[in-house]
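Q: Predict the bound structure with zinc ion.
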Amino acid sequence: MRPDPHSYADAAQPQTQSIDLDLRADFQDQVLHGEITLRFRSPGGGPFDLDTRDLQIQSVASLDGAPLPFTLAAPEPILGSRLRVDLPHGSRGLRIRYRTSPQATALQWLAPSQTAGDQPFLYSQSQPIHARSLAPLQDTPRIRVSVGSARFTVPARLRTLMAAAPRGREPAGAEAVDLFEMPQPIPPYLLAFAVGDLVQRPLSPRSAVWAEPAVAAAAAHELAGVEAMMLAAERLFGPYEWDRYDVLVMPRSFPYGGMENPRLTFVTPSILAGDRSLVNVIAHELAHAWTGNLVTNASADDFWLNEGFTVYAERRILEALEGRESAEMHAAAGLHELRTALDRFAAHPERTRLRNDLRGVDPDEAYSTVPYEKGYLLLRKLEETAGRAAWDGFLREYLAAFRFQSIVTQQFLDFLEQRLPGLAGRAGALEYIDGPGLPPSAPLPRSRRLEQLRTGAAEPANPTELLVLLQSIAPGAARLREMDARWGLSSRRSLELRHTFVVLQLRAGVEGAVEAARQLLLATGRMKYLRPLYTELLRCDRAAAERIFAEARGGYHNIARAVVEGLLKGDPPKG
Ligand code: BES
Ligand code: ZN
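A: Predicted complex:
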């Protein structure tokens, strides 16, 4: 029985409880030489299936070293290759020696020129189903694992950071071994590490930012408010359960805004706007420490349980720190993005439900803003229907009841019915969960400021206001020139503003817009910016889109490269 459509893990077979990892990074060949030990929750035997992708399996042995027979199946397009091991009766675990491929989808090996410094860099991105290209695993969030020990052998001038507790460093000639442990059980998509020339700047007794030396000062300035965010989040959602909260500022090719790796959020350097205007990304990744990392979606079918709850939590944190108007502005911008996505999915209404059936669908392809913003609207609807006090009480109970568990949407609904009987019915929750589009009863975040901005009754007072204004208008070339002169849009450090502006310039056919787009597409690998820029470029100048991609692709992560290739091939656009 395989309950997760994206994993070979079989519910009738032993379940992994903890792993030990021993990895040696070979920057020359761009491979990891690995050994993983899996220990089971309870002893078992017979066929045991693991997920792998592009791994070379060298040997499989029992915990006491006896070789075990195994077969590696031919690769399936989405799932990868099933590794089936024949376990003797009463097995408590197994040990596998393997090596990764230079094409491993979870890894990006960067040359010094692709970093902010002069050393190579390596990092992993496991969500949603890339951990299997790092190590053979039961790569489903239904099965949580702790990490007894992780050892990374790396060149001595580099250091490893893992989303785990550090346990020291041992010299090993020209190399060094960095040691870690992850006592809290996590879904495999949260396994994460980075190797590079990294330094630390403290933010508070339990928080620090890590970055390449050239960006460390800017990072510390931008993230000075992290402790205040943690305190606000704890007041809302209960104690922070992961000891430390550190942030790692990644090289520019990092494909996401942020990734909620436990104890160590990874963020794009594009949030370093200089004015702290993009720290909602940190509020979001921090909020995942409760929603997602503590209570986890059981598979990609229930992804909204991670992201919808986290957007809701992110905006509650922002509201506590900056006030209702600021949170409302973000919500209004989110609604705008949701509407755009729903329009693009007009031909695939089934993709706009919160509860999905993604059998046969690559979760990276199903990715959109819908689980984020439609999920947010459902939770806000529940809050408004129940009243904030009752809803906040429920949220805390929900997080406490399912902490360190992985659940499906039905478990959330059952718990809701038990604690706040009738609420889901009154709020029309199933329309959001199993119905397409935006239910007519959905709350519509409204920001008086935003309306004033749109009608010209007010001038933007900060970068967020400027951004939502840009997102909600379609000015011609002359107006764009004026706006640029007024706000210096084309020379901003914030890529958030610049990419929005350049998309408008491309749409308006402004001279020089293609070159401005090229500059941005070379400066970042963040998919949130690549998608709209390439989409717009394709509409106005396909040859330029192809030329720029040929120039920039070497700097993109595998996942981002595949997304842009899809756009160029004319795959249906994603929200
Ligand atoms: N967990 C996601 C990133 C992700 C999702 C990676 C699916 C791989 C597969 C992360 O928490 C996220 O949502 N990041 C957003 C930032 C945010 C403020 C909405 C992003 O990257 O844009
Ligand atoms: Zn998220």
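A: DSSP finds 19 helices and 19 strands in the chain.
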